[in-house]
Amino acid sequence: MSSDNGKRLNIKKAIKRPGALRKSMGIKKGKKIPAKKLNKAAKAPGKKGQRARLAKTLKKISKNR
Asked: What is the reported pTM?
């Protein structure tokens, strides 16, 4: 995915703490986060909500590739 000036987006830099959302939701390592729980977490305030919204956005990006 490219921006206007031709540079590629570095998604890895957007994720500061991999696994933090899963850990805060109490889901074991290696398991997928159910869509229903992700949608509920996306409505939450603070870091948990931010991380959930980012996860939903990244999910959309991966579908388009």
From this structure: 0.76
CA geometry: angle at 35 spanning 33 and 39, to 5°?
105
Displacement of CA 14 from its chain's centroid (Å) = 9
Give the number of other Cβ atoms within 10 Å of residue 5's Cβ.
5
Predicted confidence band of residue 5 (pLDDT cuts 50, 70, 90): low
Question: What span, in angstroms and rounded, lies between the C-alpha atoms of 43 and 52?
Answer: 8
Q: In the predicted model, what is the mean pLDDT of the chain? A: 86
Stretch 32-61: mean pLDDT, rounded? 93
Give me the residue spans of the domains in the chain: 11-64
Query: Half-sphere exposure of residue 9, counting CA atoms within 13 Å on the CB side?
Result: 9
